Amino acid sequence: MNGVHDMGGMQDMGPIQADKNEPVFRERWEARIFAMNRAMGAWRKWNLDASRHERELIPPAEYLRMSYYEKWLSGLVELLAKSGLVTRAEIESGTPEAGSSRATPPLTAEMVPAMIARGTPANRDVPVAARFKAGQRVRGRNINPTGHTRLPRYARGKLGTVERDHGVFVFPDTNAHFQGEKPQHLYSVRFAARELWGDAAAPRDAVYVNLWDDHLEPA
Amino acid sequence: MRRRGSRRVTGIVEPEKRGLRQKQKIRALSAVQVYYDGRTAERVHVMKTSRRDFIANAGAAAAAMHDLAHAQEPEHEHEHSLVPSDPALRVKSLESLLVEKGLVDPAALDTLIDTYERKIGPRNGAQVVARAWLDPTYKRRLLANADSAIAELGYGGQQGEHMVVVENTPKVHNMVVCTLCSCYPWPVLGLPPVWYKSAPYRSRSVIDPRGVLREFGLELPEDVEIRVHDSTAELRYLVLPERPAGSEKLNEEELAALVTRDSMIGVAKVTLPPGVHA
Question: What is the model's pTM?
Answer without folding.
Answer: 0.84
